[in-house]
Predict the structure.
Amino acid sequence: MTAPTIGVFALQGDVREHLAALHALGVDAVGVRRPEELERCQGLVIPGGESTTMFKLARAFDLFEPLQKRIADGMPAFGTCAGMIMLADRVEDGTADQETLGGLDITVRRNAFGRQVDSFEATVDFVGVEAPVHAVFIRAPWVESAGPAVEVLARVRGAGADPRADGRIVAVRQGQVMATSFHPEVGSDLSIHQSFVDLVLQQ
Ligand code: GLN
């Protein structure tokens, strides 16, 4: 089977880490800054970074609408952290003008894990991945609520000192769109990227 071409939204965020993970899996991975670059992609990763900057840059570079359309038309997409926010239909604690691409019938809460546990690491069980996954959370959102079509892929257990964090949803999938609150692109475990590549190959 020929390697799929998967784009990484490259206007902001930890693009290099995602490109490296995808290259390690034999994928033709390319940075996407322009609509022409998006056109040749069979799937798209939206990295971790800052969602409020991402949507503004996507607008400024005329990429927002093409992205929204491709996702609505069924292109597989995978968002991590800020990327999860970009793929959420609804955001709590966003900026007043914050826009998202949508695709996941979820409400995410930005910077949800609070000051005490701004950044932390945890081991999570992930549906479809055999071994527990080492998850790095950096000013991460959590999924506050999810619609009936959304499959929960992972929850966090006992996240730091905040009792409200325990059991929160941190990974989801709806059809061909998936997202994690944490950063599988940080570290050497490629299993979650592999499950996204499998999703692209199934299309
Ligand atoms: N807090 C960031 C945001 O709102 C996300 C952080 C991250 O991607 N590590 O977009």
In short: The first helix runs from residue 15 to 24. The pocket of glutamine is lined by residues 48-51, 81-82, 85, 110-111, 138-139 (CB under 6 Å).
